[in-house]
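S1.2 Input.
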Amino acid sequence: MTDGKKRAVSLCILETEKEYLLIRRGKEKNQKEDCVNQYIPIGGKVEALETPEDAVIREVKEETGILITNAKLMGVVTETSPLPKYNWVLYIFTSKIKKQNPIECREGYFEWIKKENVTTLPTPEIDQKIYEYVKNNQKFIIHTIYDENLILQSAYEYIEEKKLK
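S1.3 Output.
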């Protein structure tokens, strides 16, 4: 993909009462350097004829072996950059589950993280704002702009109508 069109992704923050299940990305062949060793929600691309919810259910099952039945859409994030391959529409879901061990994944390593510790983890910068919204059970629509080095230049939340960065 080199045309700069936005691609859709569905991500899910799996949660118990006290923890989130996140993936710490490992270095894959051809993987961008920007998310290696960062903690991110579980998910992947929305396929043709899939809804964002169908995609997140499929992706969570494929990556973790966990079947979710209660995906809740919390928000949407658009990411814009001058790099053709880094233009995304992210659908962010949560799903409450019982704690269980996920299967092994080629994309990284799953870890159960205490909710109060999520702010201490290496994550993409905007994810810290996303976790705040999720913690407060608050819906969000965020637009982000990155430079050619994938440094976050600005972020704006549309529901609250406020600049985040």
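S1.4 Remarks. Helices lie at 52-64, 125-135.
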